[in-house]
Amino acid sequence: MTRRRAAADDELYLTVGAYVVPQLLYAAARLGLADLLAAGPQGLEDMSRKTGSHAGTLARVLQALASVGVFARTRDGRWRLTRAAEPLLSDHPRSRRAAILFAGHEQHLAWGAVMHTVATGQPAFDHAFGHSLHQHLARDEAAMTAAEALRARRAGRRDPAVVDALDLGEARSIVDVGGGGGELLIAILSRRPGVCGVLVEAPHVAERTRARLQALGWGDRCEVVAADAREELPAGHDVYLLAEVVHCHEDVDASRILRNCRGPRVVVVERVLPAGGRASADRLADLHMLVMYGGRERTRREYAELFGAAGLRLRRVTPTTSWVSLLEAAPRVAR
């Protein structure tokens, strides 16, 4: 085999086998290797004993990760952290451990069943796990913890841009539909002392969020309601905010949620797909929502049609400095 042919084969393997590194990162995150090495270099046998892993296999995992810059071996044969390993730390400002844990298990298994989605148009997650992602999080404490950490990190990058772009006008009350841990609602209320908030979440999330808001001193201004937004939402408030909620649902359920927003203003915070068919992170995100939730990303026109089906009219779309835009709608007729 010529060197050129061998190099081409290596390049192809790196492309086809690109899933290996993420799964090795998942193994490292599950074992807590970075946290174990945070205090300093350690020997293989100690690491094996502390993590309950097979020493020979652990050595090969470390060597493979070292080949891409994650972890390194010291001159005396021990293993140490590298800068590239820092996102594996639980408490690092750039921590990606929660995302890696979720991607390495829930997302990995769901995408392994992608042909179910291709064949049926239904979420592969449900096929792989036997229930929906929302049901999975309600049942699996570890998955819920990882998902909450992942959501909080994502919110930390998204929410400042949303708050800067959001104009509440004369609103005195806001309903945050699917508001998670309340980060966005707190950020909004911090800038508007005269506004009160209602956060609506599924029961298994609402309980945690209620305790969290009480502990942070927001209990008097933030009511937490446990409800299924597809069935009912608190009525009569000034603004209904849905931050990356609608894209988790196909059109029928998304329309039901929007129709339950019974107030003068509805603000949907979502990624807006470009009208063209070019490949981009937006298009990949669209398929990811289908595989994981049965949902979808949408173009501006598709959002306008979705609002119309819910009795709403799209009034304006405001880009933000993050990946999302604010799509503001109002009832076609007074409710």
TrEMBL record:
Keyword hit for Methyltransferase: yes
CDD domains for this protein: AdoMet_MTases
Organism encoding this protein: Nannocystis punicea
Lineage: Bacteria, Pseudomonadati, Myxococcota, Polyangia, Nannocystales
Record-linked SUPFAM superfamilies: S-adenosyl-L-methionine-dependent methyltransferases (SSF53335), Winged helix' DNA-binding domain (SSF46785)
GO biological process: methylation
Domain O-methyltransferase dimerisation span(s) in chain numbering: 17-90
Recorded GO MF terms: methyltransferase activity
InterPro entries: COMT-like (IPR016461), COMT_C (IPR001077), COMT_dimerisation (IPR012967), SAM-dependent_MTases_sf (IPR029063), WH-like_DNA-bd_sf (IPR036388), WH_DNA-bd_sf (IPR036390)
Keyword Transferase annotated: yes
Membrane-crossing segments per the record: 12-33
Keyword terms of this UniProt record: Membrane, Methyltransferase, S-adenosyl-L-methionine, Transferase, Transmembrane, Transmembrane helix
O-methyltransferase C-terminal domain location: 111-312
Name recorded for this polypeptide: Methyltransferase
